[in-house]
Design brief:
- It is built from four helices and five strands.
- The protein is an alpha+beta fold.
- The protein has a single domain, classed as HIT-like (HIT family, subunit A, 2-Layer Sandwich), CATH 3.30.428.
- The chain has a five-stranded antiparallel β-sheet with strand order 1-2-3-5-4, sandwiched between helices.
- A hairpin with a 3-residue loop joins strand 1 and strand 2.
- Helix 2 packs across helix 4.
């Protein structure tokens, strides 16, 4: 089973502390590490497809629409300067969106003098345990995002 499938099983079992809300095509979660404050993910419900083009047109449209709603809610909840979106999958071949709220200086002087994708930034710094929200911070973040999602749905 893949890491995303494991996290979805935790949601179904009520044991995923990062779970925010279930939508038609996926699950909204707060990221484990919050170097990029408000970092969230939208996890596709099924593992049977690993590429957007494998989804039938209606499912793909709904998944993209819901991801856009999650991105807007994330922006409304955490007030970034810009949202970055990534659908990767070489590490976890399960459709899932990374939604990164971005702010000036958030990758220090990495990339092109501090401008570039999140992956220009040091993984050691990005995934440092100091970037994990406390249980109280996590609940506040989930409440903010859930409130904004409910306004848009």
């Amino acid at each position: 089973m893949c890491l995303i499938c494991d996290r979805i099983e935790m949601i179904k079992n009520g044991t995923n502390p990062y779970f925010v809300k279930e939508l038609e095509t996926g699950y909204v979660v707060i990221g484990d590490h919050q170097h990029f404050y408000g970092y969230s993910l939208f996890l596709y419900k099924n593992h049977d497809k690993t590429e957007l083009f494998q989804l039938d047109k209606a499912e793909r449209s709904k998944f993209m629409e819901e991801m856009s709603i999650v991105a807007e809610a994330t922006s409304n909840a955490f007030h970034p300067e810009k949202m970055n979106y990534e659908l990767l999958g070489m590490g976890d071949a399960h459709l899932h969106w990374h939604l990164y709220p971005r702010r000036a200086g958030d990758i220090e002087n990495c990339g092109n003098n501090g401008v570039g994708p999140v992956w220009c930034y040091s993984f050691e710094k990005m995934y440092d345990d100091a970037n994990r929200p406390s249980p109280e911070e996590l609940e506040q973040m989930k409440d903010k995002l859930r409130t904004e999602l409910e306004k848009l749905l």
